[in-house]
Structure formats: structure tokens, C-alpha cells
Amino acid sequence: MSAPLLEVDNLSKHFGSGSAPVRAVDGVSFSIAKGETLGLVGESGCGKTSLVRTLLRLNAATAGHAMLDGVDIAQAKGAELRAMRRKMQVVFQDPYQSLNPRMRVDRLLSEPWALHPGVLPRAQWSTQIARLLEAVGLRPEHALRYPNEFSGGQRQRLGIARALALNPSLLVCDEPVSALDVSVQAQVINLLARLRKERNLAMLFVAHDLAVVRHVSDRVMVMYLGRIIETGPTEEIFSAPRHPYTQALLSAVPTPDPTLRGKRRRIVLQGDLPSPSNPPSGCRFRTRCWKATDKCAVEAPELVAHGNTNLLTACHYAETVPDLA
Amino acid sequence: MTEISGTAPARKASRVKWFARALAGDPMALCSVIWLALVLVLILADTFGAFSGSRIALKARNLPPFDFTQDWRLWIGADSLGRSLLGRLAEAALTSIGIALLTVLLSLVMGTMLGLVAGYFGGPVGSLIMRISDVVMGFPTLLVALVGLYLFGPSVTNLVIVLAITRMPSYIRVARAETLEVRERLFVDAARVFGGGPIWIIRHHILPIVAPTMLTLASVNVAMVMLFESGLSYLGLGVQPPAVSWGLMIAQGQGYLSSAWWLGFFPGLAVMLTTMSFNLLANWFRIVNDPSQHWRLIRRKR
Amino acid sequence: MSPKILLRRTALAALALLALMAATFFLVRLTGDPVNLYLPVDASQAARDAMRIQLGLDRPLVVQFFEFLFNVLRLDFGTSLWHNRPAMEVVLEALPRTLALGAIALALAFAISALVGVIAAANAGSAVDRLINVVSQAAASVPDFWLGLMCVLVFAVNLRLLPTSGFGGPAYWVLPVVCLMARPFGMLVQIIRGSMIEALNASYVRTARAKGAREGRVGFVHALRNALLPAVTVTGDLAAQFAGGGGVVEVVFGFPGIGKLLIDGILRRDFAIVQSSIFAVAVVIFLINILVDILYATIDPRVRVE
Amino acid sequence: MTLLDIRDLAVSFDTAAGRIKALNGVSFSLQRGEVLALLGESGSGKSVTASAIMDLVPNPPGAIDGGSITFDGANLLDLPHRERRAICGTRIALIFQDALAALNPVYSIGWQIGEMFRIHHKKAAGEIEGAVIDLLDAVGIPDAARRARQYPHEFSGGMRQRIMIAMAVALEPDIIIADEPTTALDVTIQAQIVDLLNTIRKRSGAGMIFITHDLGVVAELADRVAVMYAGRIVEQASVYELFADPRHPYSIGLLASQPRIDVATSELVPIPGSAPNPADLPSGCAFRTRCPRAKELCAQVVPILADAGPGRLTACHFPGNAA
Amino acid sequence: QSDLVTVVVTDEPKSLDPCDTDLSNNARILRNNVTETLVNLDPANGAVLPSLATEWRQIDDLTWEFKLREGVTFHDGSAFDAAAVVAALARATNPDIGCEVGLATLQGNTFTGEAVDATTLVIKTGTVEPILPNKLSALDIGAPVTPADAKTREPIGTGPYALKAWSAGQSVALQAFDDYWGDKPAIANANIVWRGESAVRAAMVDTGEAQIAFEIAPQDATSANDIAFPNAETSLLRIDQAIAPLDDKRVREALNLAIDRDGLIGTVFNEGATKAMQVVLPSVFGYNPDIPVWPYDPDRARALLDEARAAGVPVDTEIVLYGRIGIYPNSAESMEAIQAMLLDVGFNARLEMMETTPWLEKLIGPFPAERQPSLLQTQIDNTEGDAVFTLPNRFTSGGNTSTLADPSVDDLIARASAATGDERQSLFQQAFANIAVEAINIVPLFHMVTIARVSPDLNYVPDVQAGNEIKLRSISYK
Ligand SMILES: Nc1ncnc2c1ncn2[C@@H]1O[C@H](COP(=O)(O)OP(=O)(O)OP(=O)(O)O)[C@@H](O)[C@H]1O
Ligand SMILES: Nc1ncnc2c1ncn2[C@@H]1O[C@H](COP(=O)(O)OP(=O)(O)OP(=O)(O)O)[C@@H](O)[C@H]1O
Ligand SMILES: [Mg+2]
Ligand SMILES: [Mg+2]
């Protein structure tokens, strides 16, 4: 097997210093192969965005490495950095915030080329802009509008078009559809899926909507309080999760089928997510876990395979709950 | 592409139309614009020599206003040296507004730049900028004015520089605060991901967002500087004869309040109306730039 | 505010004060030599030189500066050339008057503009609102000294209702307070009106209405407290400005406050007075800022004093 | 028994882009003890409907242009302001989407909940504190006595929503209108809140209008569903019927476009195009520009909400089952 | 309230030390109210009148003897005697204290007092001092308890009023002194307050807040209660005649001819002002009545300029008019008018109005060698009644405000200062003529007047000394 496109090793990101830093990301390791889509789910505040921003070098990592195509993201300089920037692009959550409201679409889309002279001669910009717009399902004449003249879904398409301008090999999507309307969400998801196929894009797909993640990803990673607690192939995670948190998470998602009402086994977790600046000792989930024992308070579980499965689970008492789905 | 680019002027025209409509929706702003246009006409008339005939004529000293049998230049009276008060007001308008605009422009440009740097980079340079601006803020403007005028001689240029320096901290603060906020916005992050450096980001992403706020602040400041200049001139620390500003006219006219009220009254009124106009326009501008307030400017048609 | 934060802020303020005093020291000395001003025109060159030596002005500026710093550390601010007594003593006589004047003006301005601002915001767009807007804009735009002169003309000279100027019983305070109030009043009405309109559109106000609260309660209990925050900031800034003296207004009314003292000090090259007033005012401003922060935190529990 | 009956409600707003017709003749009714889900995408007018019921449409820029809201036999729109206010909170209560914004940041939550009693003079001053603590207990906030003294920013999102709920049920209203109460919450918290709402509603027997665009929550909670599009109700049916057999092309599209957690979907079927500009709605049926079935008639005649089988209504010229 | 009179002046006194009465702000309060001098000058003709000294004579060139009044006590009860005068004199001339009197009037000579007995005083001078009594009219005598090495804020004198309180920034209150040696004043209390604005001062008399207001600007002097009195000041422009083109006499003459003095009187200057031909008033010893007043002749001025231009004088060089803000009422307007007049005859004149300190730098030498040709707005006062108090410092080559370096003038002034009687008078008259006509070092403007507004129910007529003295004891209610 060839080397993975992105390899993350024990990456941490802590905010603030002093006695109780916010441990937004705490020793996370994973990798993404070329053309693969990795879904990342977790509740609000568990560190998804922090992880993404660290990968994009918008935050400096506190510890650990992330290598993109063999280049350490944090260390890259000069030409290496520029090459890295071209390879990895991002689509942000909020389509209203991620486009500069004072830039016309043609300038928005050509900004990457202006920043990477030599990628595309200026003469070809306008044709390329038209092509990009078409690729994301917009029309060439949209190039002369301002972002506020677009709907949310259209804006998200603009964001995607812009991310594609440099023809990256890895697209990092931080909740690209969660700000969109249900009917528009489907359009964007389909668009991403199509582009991924056409361009052999690898994706890190962050979302908290499990249904969306299930639909999009090849592999899924579940995060809780800055740690990865379970990871594995999408189908396996959704059909037979082993971590209690994943189980609870899946069961909490309401099924759009009124006939199933009251028939599913639902696990309603008690309490809120603990503060990431003062995470529980041992297993971080233990404060809301119905299986927690004294051991969980002392010993942090490793992310390992439990039994005959492709899943890696960080739980001392990992087991499947067969009748979940 | 031609048929697409053809729409650009049309968009511009519609923007002008929208502004005109928004202006029509705010009678106060409309009045302000009319008043400022009037002042502009007066200034132009003066520069083209309409008042050049108004020399010192001690015989016409303190000629009262509203005597329409006189030359039109004397319709609002003559000053203590018999010069046309209207002409003096025109000349003073150029100084007063000129000083205010230049001051504001200078402090706007410098303050915004420093604020952007302080806000975007932070760190020791940022704190240094902020501390210096704190210290400047701590000074009585009078002292700074005096030092500047003493060191460099009393001239309009020096007054502008001095006032600009004392006004700068407010721009620095606002620009910094805005920058701090804007630099956390997602589109700035996006630009960084594309490889945009600080200069690029400040120029293309932060400045355009910060600019309207700064312009609003500037138009409020035009008003403030005008008041300030008149105060300084009143104390004898601002514009000095033979130059003339509205503030100086008030100062000189105050001696005549009981005998020739028009000498101090009209320049006072001019300061007030002009200041008010700039304040009102600032308000209007703020609303125009805030989509959630737009409806205020559009009359409800039923 | 915890003592630790207070300590930190005090330390920072002390540093800033040091910079301010240093800048003041050099700036005033750039405005020229006081000796000519203090000696009769006929005084001989020898007498001028003697005075320079006596005042220590003949020594290098740096030496003078360090002596000045040393004296400041001992809270010795020198002797006023003009008043011929310790400068700080003169300043501490004038400062309380200015503070009282400013406090009265600001408090009145704040109270009245809160009321007027709420009325305007509640009737946004109506004739009342427009009237309030015009009046407050005019108040914010009127040159205070001009207003002062006009007030003297009308109320003192023509109507004989109030004394023209000076310092004394309550009657003497009316006109200075009114003139000083005009601008804060205008500004605060604008601000409170704006933030009230915003607050009245806020979600929590909808909640209050949904709870069944009457408009008066919605406006004064729910919206106003939130809307006051920007007004408090501006009032703090104004208070800081006023601490430096009502400047021109004090001159017009012959009000013996710190503003007049400072202007006179500057015009008379009374270095000790200028330095002491700036020092005293800076300290007051520091205290005002802390006060404003505390007030802020009292109004809005989200704000933590740093 | 019909508790609330809304007929042809029309609301408009003045905006820079011109006059927006936010509601274009909304009609639905709510029975006692029933949960009606108001489903529809962003901007379809769900919140405006709630505002109109609660007399919260800001005027200006908004205005109620017509229709009626009949509650307990009286048309609310005819009542004087003062009487409507008296109904708010006591008989109809509203829970907002963004609890952080909806709670006044400068008052403690105990004060804000207690205000319900003070405004409507329902309890003596001495009893209020105890009542507030009981309410907080009831919505599952531990350590209620201490937390009542805290401010909204000191609570997590789920807690704040619980506080909103406590406030809404304080005076045991007949109707609770919940405007997307769980949209801003995480799934695990959302599950808690949905559970809580269910429990409380069952206990008090209040009717509920549950506004959302989350099909899952609807399936979990609602008895009946009204689907909104561009300021109109386009379909009304019992929850079972709607999910099993949507008739309006918009409802069909809505159901087909959402990925499901319980089954692996290979391809989603999105509704083409985007929501129309409310200032410039298409003539006739507002959905026609995105509708696969649109014919000439749709551009000319506005379809009315008509009977389409027992207990269900559809506003479409060409209703039918999903293809 | 008939036992109180309130006087409003422009500024707070700088000091109330008896030895600082050379400043009129201080003198107005103290002189002959709180403290007294050995002799006074007659406001009408400048003659020396007895006060604390009853008689005096010059024993020899360097020695004078004064007989002091008996039975005079200071406000603190101590007796007035020769020792007190000796102490006051020593104090006034002590350079360490920096007394105004010592630095101005008494400068340039040494004075040693000697108490022969309680009422007999001998003063020895370093050089001959022909007009010692005039000089001593400026020396106020404070009580012996006045600190010898520092200034005081609480003067104790022998005058009809004692200081009651000085509320800094607000007012000075005086109270009649019961044991005064002369006639008791009619009004028991006096308040001196100060306001910067002329209009306010004038209004205060109308409103009854004050009974006397000084320095009312011409435009505020609109009522019958406004009394103009000459204030011993003469306004002028000093010509810096060392710098071209002002080094040319034709140019300086043109300056004088260009100014329409009649036009300025009654408009910018008060009607009561009189055109001046020299820098002192007729009442001053040494005044020359024969110097002609400059006519207004702009054509002649233009002709002179053309002539000078033809002779190669750079008459088109920019000449700066240095004005001082507020030196007298309407000072800026007068300079604007003068600038316009100069421009009219073809001068390239630029006006620069300055604050006092920078103006003083222009006034007082030494002057930098590289400087622009300039005219300086100034005024000269002479309250001591003798030309020697005006001339040496201002018009001799050694004078620190002089721009004239003419050995013949120097010699004239030196000789006049040492002379007495008619010789003195004629020498001074020659000097004045020389300065005004031959050298044309000045553009004399006006003998100035001050306007005081006096409440109609008050008996008070300000005289020429009212700029320096408010003779409170002469005031009474009608
Ligand atoms: N700049 C920052 N400074 C301090 N703390 C931060 C910062 N950014 C994030 N955090 C904290 O780090 C934790 C993780 O935040 P992060 O935004 O990565 O979560 P998330 O999983 O993306 O949440 P969401 O689903 O809400 O986007 C949170 O507790 C957050 O408060
Ligand atoms: N105060 C207002 N001013 C102008 N337009 C408004 C106002 N309130 C609502 N609207 C308009 O009314 C329409 C309906 O809005 P509404 O808030 O009811 O939508 P919604 O269905 O609740 O959407 P969401 O799911 O986003 O909450 C929208 O087009 C909106 O722009
Ligand atoms: Mg996130
Ligand atoms: Mg809504």
C-alpha cells in the first residue's frame, strides 16, 4: 500500500496556557489515503474544528505532527509551504462567513491564482472561473455578483468552487452542510460526492449530522472531548458500534419514520459534555457512561480493536449492542 | 463575456439610485446634504473671487444684517472691519472644513494603518502602538496643540498635524478592535489557507470590511474636529488672523455679542449646522451600511 | 475585581503614567522659556540668567528630567511659578470643583438622555423621534463656548436670572452645567436611542413580550439595562474628558477648575502646574476607568473585569 | 376540540428589497392536547406564524394584512393589545430557537422565570422563589436553588433550553409553541430535550405547535404535520400519512432529499433550485419553478389548500404519490 | 449692600507680595489699598506727592534723606518706621527673591537704606539718581514680618484696607483697616474678582454682580456708565531697522504714512484714544510737544517706496507683522487693518499673531542675525512719570528690547538720565525727536485709553493711574 496522503500522529492542540489549558485536541492519530473520505463526527465542542484548523495550519499544533504527502505541515516553508497550500483546501461550515462580502465572485474565485502566480496565466482566469462555476452547478454570469446575492446553498457552492481552484488532492470540509437548509443540503452533498469521484479527491468530512456522515464517508472517526474514541469503516460503525458513546450517539438521532416511534431502543445520555479544560480522569466519557467502573476513572483506554472487527475502540468494556438499528 | 460585463455600469447606476432613494428616505440626511452643498457653493464662490471685492472698509464696520438694499454680499452684514460677513464665512468655511477634512483624512489613514497592524499582528508591536496611543489620549489636546504650534509656528498645516495626532488614537482603537474581530472570520482563514500573507489579507480582506466603520467614525470626527478647532481658535491657540476660521470668527465676534450679535452668531450657527450635518450623515451612512436597518430609509407605501 | 487584577492594572497604569509624565515634561519644555514671561520686560539679561539658574533651567534637560522624576516619586511636584506655592496644592484645590461640575453635568445628561432616548426608541420613526433626533443632534453639535456666551447673554444679561459667571452658590453652577451637558446629552441620546432600538429588536425582548410583559416593562426593565452598556462606555470616556476640565466652558464662565488652571498653566508656562494637573487628571482617569469597569460588570454579568 | 384556528393569515414586511409577503394566507388548526409540527425550510414563514399568534410581529416593518387567529372562541387579531398580552404566557407560551439570545443576559434565570408570576400576578412575592426552584427541578436542572441565581451565560445550551421550557410551562398554558427548540443542540442533548418536552406536554395536556425542519424530530413527536413553503401551508396530514405517502411535490422532495441514519442511501434526490426570493415570488404556485410536475396552470392559479383524503389537505393542482 | 464694592478685572493677581507691584494686576489690588509707598505721583502732572514720607531732600549726588510719617501702624499692629522701609528696600532689591520692582524700576543701580532714627531714613545710591522719589513711588512697603527671603501671599501693609482672604481662582477680599492713619474709607469691604471676557465683565456691572469693571472692549462700551481714561500706555509698532528693506529711512517713513490713524480711532480703537507721535504721554517728564503727528498719505508712501525701489532697496521683501493676541482689546483686528493698509501702499506684509511667550521672544533680544524684516506690535507704559523709565531699555544699543543702535541717541539718553531740571527735559525731548523723526524707529499709533464700566450709584472716576491703582478709599455710594 502506498503512503497515505495525510498522516496525523499524536496531534494535540491546547488553547491557553497555565494550569488548565483547554485541551481541544488531545493526542489524535489517523491517516487518510488518496481518494478516501474520512468522516469525523462528534458533538459540539469536542474539538473537530480545532483539529481541522490545526491541520490547515491556522493554529499551531501544541504537540505531534501532521504530514501531507510526506511534508510536515507545521514545518513547511517557502516553496514547500506553497506546494502544501495547493494540495490541501478547505470548505468551511458557514457559507455566509466564509466568503468576503465585499469581493465579487470573480475576484473570490481567482484569489487563489493571484496568490499562486504561475498556476494559471491571467488570460485564462475568466474561462476557468466559468468552468469552476459550472462544475459546482452555477452559471458563468454569476461571476459578476456579490456573495450576498446568493442563497446559502449557492454560497456553499462558491466556497467549494474556490476550494477547487487550485486542484487540491485533499479537501477538508468542516461541517459543509450543517448551515444549509435540508433541501439544499442534499444538493451540496451530491455535488461533493460527484466532485470527489471526478477528481479523485480525498476528503476529511467533519459533521455532527450522523446521517450525512454515513452517506458521505468511507471511514468514520468518532471524537469525544478531544480524543478519538472509535474509528472504522462506515458500515461497521453504523451497524455495530462498540463504544458506548457511539452507541448512544446513534440511538439519539431520531429516525424519520413515525412508525418506529417508541420501538427503538434509545439511550438518552445524562448530563452535558464536560469542560475540555478539565476533562475527567481516565476515560473521558465515564461521567456520562452507564458502564463506567472505577477502572475507567484511573486508566485511559487505548484505541484498539476489540474482538473480530475492523473497528478500533477506546473503551475498556467495548461490546456491540446488536439490536440497536 | 461582453454581454456579462455590460451589466456592470447598470449595477453601478442602480447603486447610485439606491443611495438616492435611501437619502430621500431620510429627510434629515437630505437637509444635511443640501446644507453642505450650500457651503460648498459658498466656498467655490469665494475661490472664484466672488468676494474678492470685500476689502477692509472701516466705514462699513458692523453693518447689520438683512439690509437688502445693500450689495448682496452684505446681506448678512459686515464684520468689525467692514468686510462682507458672507465672504468671511466663505473664507472661514474653507479653513474650518478644510482643517477638519484634512485632519480627519490624515488621522484616518494613519490611525487605520496602525490599528490594522496592531490588531492583525498583535504582539509587542501591537502593544507598543496601543500604549503610545493611550499616552497620546492622556494628553490634554491643548498642550499638544500649543507645543506643535509653538515648535512649528502657527499655521494651518501644523494645526492639522497636531489635531490629527491627537485624534489618531480613536481610529487606532476602533480599527484594532474591528481587525481583531474580522481576522477571526472564516473568509480570512480561507485566504490563509490559499497561502495569503498578512499584507494580502489586510489589504484585500480586512481593510474593505473595516473601511465603512472607519468612514462612519471619520464623519463623526469631522464634526468633532470642527468643534475642537473652533475651541482652540477661541482660546487663541488655533487659527490666527489674518487666516480665519469659524471658531476664530466666534471668538472675535463674542466681543460684539451685545452690540453686533451677527458677528458671532452666524459663524456659530455655521459650525453647528455643519457639525450636525456631518453627524447626521454619519448616522445615515451607518444605516445604509447595515442591511437590518435599511427599512428605516424606505418609506412605507400602501 | 480581584485584588490581583487591581494590582496588575495599577502597575500597568503606573507605567503609562510614567510615560505620560515623561512626555509631558519634555513637551512643556518645548513650548519655550518661562523666564521672559515672569520677568519684567525691563529686567536685565543678568537677571534673566539668574532666574534661569535659580529655576534650574540652565542644566541639561536630562538632568532636569531625572530630578523631576525623583521628585515625583517623592510626590513633590514643584512650586508653581505663577501661584508661588506648591503646584499640587493648587491643583487639588481646582480638581474637586471640576469633578463636581463634570459629575453633575454627566449625571444629569445621563439621566435625561436615558429617558429621552427610550422615548425616541419606543416611537422610532415618529414625529417625536424626529424632534428628539434634531434636538439631540443640535445639542451634540453646538460649540459649547458659543452656547455659553449665548446663555450669558440671555439668562444673565437680558433676563437677569442667573449670575454671569464666577464661583459660588448653586446659581453659579447652572449655566456651566447646562453648557457642559449639551454635548454629552446629545451624544447619549443618540447612543441610547440606537442601542435601545437594537435591544428592542433583540430576541430576549421578544421573550419578554411573549411572557406577556407590558411595553413599559419591556422597555425599561428588559431593554434599557442592556442598552445602557454602550452609553456607560461613552459616559466613561466623557467622564475621562471632563476630568481634564471643562476647558473652554470653564474659561467662559470664569469657573476656577482644573481646565482653566491647565489652560492658564500652559499659557503662563507654569510647568509645575501643567505637570501636576496632568498627573492628577491621569490618576482620576485611571480611577474612572476602574469605576466604569465595575459599573459595567454590575450591569452586565457577562462582563468580567480584567 | 379546536383550540386554535388560524385562517388566511397574511403578514408582510417592508425591506430594502421591497415588500415581502412573509405569510400568504396560512390556515391550520390545533386541537387540544395535540402536537402539530410546522415543517418547512428556512424562510418559509414558520417563525412569523408563531410571532403572529403571540402578537410579536414587529411593526414597523411588519404588518398583519389579514386573516384571523381564533383562540378559545375569540379572534385574537380583534382583541386590544392589552388583552392579548394577558393571554401571552398564561394561555399560550413560546419557546424560542436560540435560547441564549432569548434569555435576557443581564438578569439571573431565577428572576426571569419568576417574572412570569410577577407579570401576571399569579403568586405572592414570597412564594415565587419556591415555585421557580420547583420548575427548575421539573425540567431537570440539578442544584436548582443555587443555579437560579446564575446568569444565562453560565449555562450550557441544553440547560438554557430547559430554562426556556421551565419559563414556558410556568403558568400551565393551553398551547406551547416551540420554535425549533432543538435545532441549535447536539443530538444527545436534543434527545434529552425532546424527551423532556414530551413528558411535560403529556403531564399538562397542553397542545403544542412544534416548529422544525428536522424530519426525525417530527417523526418522533408530532401527531399532525403542516408543511410550509413560501408563506403558505402546502400540505397537512397526520404524521403517519405524511411520511408514508406525501402528496405535495415539495413534501415529497423534502422527504427524499434527506439522508437517513438507519439505512445506507446511495444517492440523495435533492429538490432542484433554491427557495424563491420572498420579495419576488413566482406567480401562481410558488413552488412551480422547482416542481417536476409544474404545468401552465400552476403559473396562473394559486392552488388552494384542498381536501385530499380523510384528514389531509394539499395545496397542489396535481397532487400525487411519490413517483 | 452699601458696604461692599466688587471690582472685576481681567486676571487673577499673580502675586500679592508688596514687592511685585510692578505688575498692574497686583498693583491694582495692593497699591494704596493694602500697601502704601513713601510718595505718590500726581495723576494730573506727575508731580511727587507725600504719602508715608512727608518730606525729602537730596543731601548729595548719592544720598537722599526722607522724613517719615508718624503714628502709622501696619495691619498686624507693628509700627511703621525707617527700619521697615530699609527692610522693604533690601527685600525688593534682593535678586534671590526676584521682585518685580527690583527687576524693573529699581534695576541698574544700587540702593542702600539706613535708618537714622525711627522717622528719618537715608538712602545711598550706587550712581547718581536724580529722580529717586519717582522710583520710590513704585516701592510698596510691607510689614517687617514679611519674610526676607521669600515671597508672601499675605501682604501686610499700612493701607486703608487689609487683606481678608485670597480664594485662589475666585476672588480677593479686602476689609477696611480700623487704625488707618488717614481718612477712613467710605466702604468697608471690597472684593476683587476676575473674568477673561470683556462682555462678561461689562455685563456684571449691569447685573449688579460688580460695581466696577475694567478693560471693557470698545464694542462693549455701549452704555453711559462706561468711562474711558488714558491708561499711560502708548501703542506702536517697533520697526526692526537693522534688516533690509527696513534699514532704509524712506521705507520706514512710508510705513508711517501708510497708516490711516484717524480711520482706526472710533472703530478698532476707542474714540478716546489720541494719535501718538512719541511713545510717552504728555504728562511724562521729557515729553516733546513739537514732534509732528504722521499724516495719512498713501500716495506719498507709494512714491517713497518707488524711490527706494529705484535705489535698489529690496522693498518687495516680505515683512512680518508680529502681533500679540490680546495685548489690548481688538489687537488682532487692528493688526489686520494695519496689514491691509500696508498692503494697500505696496508693502509685502504678512501678519502673524502670537501667543505671549513666543511674542516675548521676538520682543526681547538678543536677536538672531538671520531674521526676517519685521514690525512688532507692542505698547509702552510709563507710570513713573519720567522718560528714563521708557527710553534706555527700548532705544539704546544696549537695551534688551531695542532695535535701534544709534550712538548719538545712546549718548543723548545717557546724558539726560544723569541730568536734572530743564537740561534733563530738553535732552529727553531731543531723544524723543530723534527716535521718532530722524531714526524713525517706530510707527507710533495711539495714546491708549482703558474703558471702565462703573455702576451709576457709585462715586468713582478712574484717573490715568487707574490701570495700576484702584483707589478704593476714594469710592463711595451715592
Ligand atoms: N481559540 C480558542 N481559544 C480557546 N478555546 C478554544 C478556541 N477554539 C476552540 N476552543 C475550545 O476548544 C474546544 C473545541 O472546540 P472546537 O471548535 O474545535 O469544537 P467543534 O467540535 O468544532 O465544535 P462545533 O461542533 O461547535 O463546531 C471547545 O471547548 C472550544 O471552546
Ligand atoms: N423583522 C423582519 N423584517 C423583514 N423580514 C422579515 C422579518 N421577520 C421575518 N421576515 C421575513 O419573513 C420570511 C419568513 O421568515 P421566518 O422567520 O418566519 O422563517 P422561518 O420559516 O422561521 O425560517 P427559519 O427556519 O430560518 O427560522 C422570511 O423571508 C424573512 O425574511
Ligand atoms: Mg466546529
Ligand atoms: Mg424561524
Task: Describe the model.
- The complex is a heteropentamer of chains A (325), B (302), C (306), D (323) and E (478).
- In chain A, 30% of the residues lie in helices and 20% in strands.
- Chain A is built from ten helices and twelve strands.
- In chain A, α3 (105-115) packs across α4 and α5 packs parallel to α6 (182-199).
- Chain D has helices at 46-53, 81-87, 99-102, 109-120, 125-138, 144-147, 157-169, 187-204, 215-221, 239-244, 249-256, 296-300, and strands spanning 2-15, 18-31, 35-39, 62-71, 74-75, 92-95, 175-179, 207-212, 224-229, 232-238, 306-307, 313-314.
- In chain D, 54% of the residues are buried.
- Chain E contains 13 helices and 21 strands.
- In chain E, the strands form five sheets. In chain E, strands 1, 10, 11, 12, 13, 14, 15, 16, 17, 18 and 19 form an eleven-stranded mixed β-sheet that branches. In chain E, strands 5-6-8-7 form a four-stranded antiparallel β-sheet, with helices on one face. In chain E, strands 2-9 form a two-stranded antiparallel ribbon.
- Chain E is globular and about 75 Å long.
- Chain E starts with a strand and ends with a strand.
- The model of chain E has no long low-confidence stretch (mean pLDDT 87).
- The chains are: A alpha/beta (325), B mainly alpha (302), C mainly alpha (306), D alpha/beta (323), E alpha+beta (478).
- Chains A and D meet through α5, α6, α7 and α9 of A and α7, α8, α9, α10 and α11 of D.
- One adenosine-5'-triphosphate binds next to β2 and α1 of chain A.
- The site of one adenosine-5'-triphosphate (ATP) has 14 residues of chain A, from β2 and α1.
Strand order of the largest sheet of chain D: 6-7-8-3-9-10-12-11
Question: What distance lies between the first and last C-alpha atoms of chain D, to the nearest angstrom?
Answer: 36 Å
Order of helices and strands of chain D: EEEHEEHEHHHHHEHEHEEHHHEE
By CATH, the superfamily of the domain at 91-282 in chain B comes out as: MetI-like
Work out the radius of gyration of chain D.
Answer: 20 Å
Q: Which shape of chain D, going by the Cα principal axes?
A: globular
Order of helices and strands of chain B: HHHHHHHHHHH
* Mean pLDDT across every amino acid position of chain B: 78
Principal-axes geometry of chain B comes out as: globular
Helix content of chain B: over 70%
**Beta-strand segment tally of chain B:** 0
> What is the CATH class of the domain at 91-282 in chain B?
Mainly Alpha
Give the class of chain D from helix and strand content and strand pairing: alpha/beta
The count of β-strands of chain D is 12
**What ligand species are in this complex?**
adenosine-5'-triphosphate, magnesium ion
Brief rundown of the structure:
The complex is a heteropentamer of chains A (325), B (302), C (306), D (323) and E (478). Chain B has helices at residues 2-5, 7-24, 27-47, 85-121, 123-138, 141-152, 156-182, 186-193, 198-235, 246-254, 262-288.
